[in-house]
């Protein structure tokens, strides 16, 4: 007997229930076209603020006021003292694709202004009530144009333009429902103004909300503006970045690893003065922090990239927050090495007050000129807050994407001479030499901290050891506490990396090629980057339309998963035009060797051994963190020690 229940019909999804009916093709009305376009440009009040401030900057404004009501939902008023708009051009300014920024395709391919599409005012006026009030130099008075009625009337104001936007999304109530609270929208508007303020210290910004002054940034030097916007503590815990090669310049400040944050809320990147979010640049910066950040901490930085306008496409995204570079690998590599060199100098080495080099003296002269209020960065005048970093013009990436030679004169001598060409296998033979040996002193010809009097040593003089784990030292500021295993691990790791040097990666042919199923993107990347793969010690070629064959791999990584390594390299090459997967794999091996070769906890050191470790730290790059990003030493000043014991109270 069949006891099975009758099958119940499964209802079809609602969007598939009815057969489609043919609908005739029609032209959309102009108002609907404008509202669709506005949906791409105007996402929230902050989008309006960004677009209108862009226009004010393009008009040459030196003072910009932003007035908001209800977080910008009820009202946004942007006032500037720019060149103004002639009365006969006011109605034209509200039309779609009407702009003074570009005239031809050549202009579009080399955009040098913040705005260029001529869409912002038309898009805003289609979803809000808007009015323009403007006066040019020499005009008898200003004129006010109502965007909805088209009424043009005389008005009073000084030279410049005021744009009033009220009741945002009043004509599209569904969009308005997606807005957040007034406080949240205000925060987004403030962030939009903050991004402009960081890039333009020569312009004063004032933000009002509900009639109250919320923020004000006066015209100042680049250094002062950075301090005003991000706080003086950011300057104290960041390092200047400066690299210039040909038409490409990278400058700014990169936060030290110990100042990393749990959120990526203090990361600003500008391309030709325009704030952008770019995965390629973000990956390059993150690569520079690879072995100095602990866990999933996020670095803080403000970086400016100056590049010829015809080498970058800004017409990629409706909000202009994304760009596309003609040579992405060049940007990625220079950003990475610029930040990496800035972070290489440890805090102890930076504390030395040595005589500046001629290049540094020239940079300091530029810094003095740049500190004048009203100064605006230009290709010949880098801002003051990165001028103290030596120019990195010589930082040409070596074959195989190895670390380029640094311009810092304090680099250790290890890695020079015959050892510079050693491969990973040969470096492994140095593992036994990595044991702690305070008597092993580098070439005395290299200028090191040892040349200083004892009381000037940045990490001071060792005085004791606590339970075989921490070394205590005394310097001019107070007490130094050193995690001896973490510190020596970094010292050994940097020595091994320097011994590996920038040698070409040796390739090992495979007796039987390894094949694996590949995606279309991986096939394309293998074909497009064949020369790069060869420099990385890999021979990867398509075997069929869906299969890749690996015929050679890096000799130093013979024990790893070849397919996983190839996939990682191809993924990075496809997305960033550069790959550091081989270098990371090599460094992971060296890090393991360094960890096992470093002095262990509970080992009793003599004062001579402790002082030898301190001197090694002073001459080692990135000595402030171990290979895993943990701090290696901390400073307790006399004031902090006095506070612990309530002295002076």
Would you write up a description of this structure?
This protein is an alpha+beta fold and about 650 residues long. Helices cover about 35% and strands about 20% of the residues. The strands form five sheets. Strands 5-4-3-6-2-1-7-8 form an eight-stranded mixed sheet. A hairpin with a 5-residue loop joins strand 4 (about 140-145) and strand 5 (about 150-155).
Brief account:
Helices cover 33% and strands 20% of the residues. By secondary structure, it is of the alpha+beta class.
Strand order of the largest sheet: 5-4-3-6-2-1-7-8
Average pLDDT rating: 78
For the record, give the distance between the C-alpha atoms at the N and C termini, rounded to a whole number. 96 Å
Query: If you compute it from the alpha carbons, what radius of gyration comes out, rounded to the nearest whole angstrom?
Result: 30 Å
Q: Which structural class should the secondary elements be placed in? A: alpha+beta
Percent of residues in beta strands = 15-25%
Describe this protein with a few key phrases:
globular, 649 residues, alpha+beta, 33% helix, 8-stranded mixed beta sheet
List the helices and strands and how they pair.
Layout: H1 14-17, H2 30-41, H3 45-58, E1 63-69, E2 75-80, H4 90-93, H5 105-108, H6 120-127, E3 129-135, E4 142-146, E5 152-155, E6 160-166, H7 173-177, H8 182-199, E7 204-209, E8 212-217, H9 222-230, H10 232-236, E9 238-245, E10 248-255, E11 267-271, E12 274-276, H11 279-288, E13 301-306, E14 312-313, E15 324-325, H12 328-344, H13 347-350, H14 358-370, H15 424-428, E16 461-466, E17 470-474, E18 478-483, H16 484-500, E19 507-517, H17 520-528, H18 530-535, E20 539-542, E21 547-554, H19 562-576, H20 581-597, H21 607-618, E22 633-637, H22 638-644
Parallel strand pairs: 1-7, 11-13
Antiparallel strand pairs: 1-2, 2-6, 3-4, 3-6, 4-5, 7-8, 9-10, 10-13, 11-12, 14-15, 16-17, 17-18, 18-22, 19-21, 20-21
Helix pairs in contact: 2-6, 3-8, 11-12, 16-20, 16-21, 17-19
């Amino acid at each position: 007997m069949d006891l099975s229940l009758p099958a119940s019909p499964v209802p079809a999804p609602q969007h598939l229930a009815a057969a489609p009916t043919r609908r005739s093709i029609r032209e959309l009305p102009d108002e609907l076209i404008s509202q669709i376009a506005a949906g791409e440009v105007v996402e929230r009040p902050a989008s309006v603020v960004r677009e209108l401030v862009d226009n004010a900057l393009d008009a040459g404004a030196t003072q910009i006021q932003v007035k908001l009501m209800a977080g910008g939902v009820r009202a946004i008023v942007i006032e500037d003292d720019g060149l103004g708009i002639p009365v006969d051009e006011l109605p034209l300014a509200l039309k779609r694709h009407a702009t003074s920024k570009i005239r031809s395709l050549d202009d579009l391919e080399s955009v040098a202004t913040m705005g260029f599409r001529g869409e912002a005012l038309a898009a805003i006026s289609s979803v809000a009530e808007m009015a323009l009030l403007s006066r040019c130099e020499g005009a008898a008075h200003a004129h006010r144009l109502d965007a909805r009625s088209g009424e043009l009337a005389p008005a009073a104001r000084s030279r410049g333009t005021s744009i009033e936007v009220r009741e945002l999304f009043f004509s599209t109530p569904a969009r308005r429902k997606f807005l957040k609270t007034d406080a949240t929208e205000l925060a987004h508007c403030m962030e939009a103004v903050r991004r402009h303020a960081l890039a333009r210290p020569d312009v004063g910004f004032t933000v009002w909300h509900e009639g109250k002054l919320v923020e004000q940034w006066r015209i100042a030097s680049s250094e002062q503006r950075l301090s005003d916007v991000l706080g003086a503590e950011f300057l104290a815990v960041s390092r200047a970045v400066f690299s210039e090669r040909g038409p490409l310049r990278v400058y700014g400040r990169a936060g030290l690893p110990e100042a990393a944050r749990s959120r990526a809320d203090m990361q600003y990147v500008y391309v030709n003065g325009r704030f952008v979010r770019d995965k390629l640049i973000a990956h390059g910066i993150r690569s520079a922090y690879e072995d100095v950040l602990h866990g999933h901490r996020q670095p803080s930085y403000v970086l400016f990239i100056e590049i010829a306008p015809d080498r970058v496409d800004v017409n990629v995204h409706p909000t202009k927050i994304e760009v596309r570079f003609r040579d992405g690998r060049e940007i990625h590599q220079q950003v990475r090495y610029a930040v990496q060199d800035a972070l290489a100098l440890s805090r102890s080495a930076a504390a030395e007050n040595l005589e500046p080099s001629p290049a540094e003296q020239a940079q300091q002269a530029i810094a003095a000129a740049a500190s004048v209020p009203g100064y605006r960065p230009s290709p010949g005048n880098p801002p003051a807050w990165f001028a103290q970093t030596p120019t990195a013009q010589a930082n040409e990436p070596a074959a195989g994407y190895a670390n380029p030679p640094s311009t810092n004169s304090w680099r250790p001598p290890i890695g020079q001479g015959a050892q510079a060409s050693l491969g990973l296998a040969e470096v492994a033979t140095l593992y036994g030499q990595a044991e702690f040996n305070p008597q092993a002193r580098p070439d005395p010809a290299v200028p090191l901290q040892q040349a200083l009097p004892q009381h000037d040593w940045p990490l001071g003089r060792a005085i004791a050891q606590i339970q075989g784990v921490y070394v205590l030292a005394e310097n001019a500021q107070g007490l130094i506490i050193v995690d001896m295993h973490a510190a020596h691990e970094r010292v050994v790791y940097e020595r091994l990396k320097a011994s590996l040097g920038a040698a070409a990666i040796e390739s090992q042919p495979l007796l039987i090629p390894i094949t694996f199923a590949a995606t279309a993107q991986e096939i394309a990347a293998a074909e497009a980057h064949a020369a790069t793969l060869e420099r990385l010690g890999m021979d990867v070629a398509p075997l069929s339309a869906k299969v890749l064959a690996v015929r050679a791999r890096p000799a130093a990584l013979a024990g790893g998963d070849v397919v996983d390594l190839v996939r990682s390299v191809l993924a990075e090459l496809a997305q960033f035009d550069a790959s550091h997967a081989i270098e990371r794999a090599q460094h992971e091996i060296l890090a393991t060797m360094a960890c096992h070769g470093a002095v262990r906890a509970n080992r009793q050191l003599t004062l001579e051994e402790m002082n030898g470790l301190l001197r090694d730290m002073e001459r080692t790059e990135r000595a402030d963190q171990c290979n895993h990003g943990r701090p290696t030493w901390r400073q307790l000043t006399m004031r902090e020690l006095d506070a612990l014991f309530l002295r002076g109270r």
